[in-house]
């Protein structure tokens, strides 16, 4: 059984690095393709809550979809529900990878952050 769920995009080099790091740290992973199967609004709500991060940290601000939808100028005017609906509808809008054990959540990949959050030591 997996101990971590990873919302990731297989072609993303950052995601591949994160998955490699987690496997080398001894984790069993459940990988979810973020574009084909984005998290639901409820999953996202839980992920944001457990991450302790503001919702805007979940947006992939350097991504194509973010630019196409003109979110740089619109995001601040959207309600939390509207933002969650957008993320759920467009998996590529989500900053990735998102990793969770059901209690804590990390967004993006930084080795020191992973060492702190996901080391099995």
TrEMBL record:
The keyword Oxidoreductase applies. Keywords: Oxidoreductase. One of its GO terms (molecular function) is arsenate reductase (glutaredoxin) activity. It holds the Pfam family ArsC. Coiled coil: none annotated. It comes from the Bacteria. Its EC number is 1.20.4.1. The keyword Oxidoreductase applies. Belongs to the ArsC family. This is Arsenate reductase.
């Amino acid at each position: 059984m997996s101990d971590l769920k990873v919302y990731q995009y297989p072609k993303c080099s950052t995601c591949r690095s994160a998955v490699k790091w987690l496997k080398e740290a001894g984790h069993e992973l459940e990988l979810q393709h973020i574009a084909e199967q984005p998290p639901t609004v409820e999953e996202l709500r839980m992920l944001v809550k457990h991450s302790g991060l503001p919702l805007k940290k979940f947006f992939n601000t350097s991504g194509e979809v973010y630019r196409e939808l003109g979110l740089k100028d619109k995001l601040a005017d959207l309600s939390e529900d509207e933002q969650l609906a957008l993320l759920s509808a467009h998996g590529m809008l989500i900053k990735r990878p998102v990793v969770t054990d059901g209690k804590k959540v990390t967004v993006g990949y930084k080795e020191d952050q992973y060492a702190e959050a996901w080391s099995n030591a």
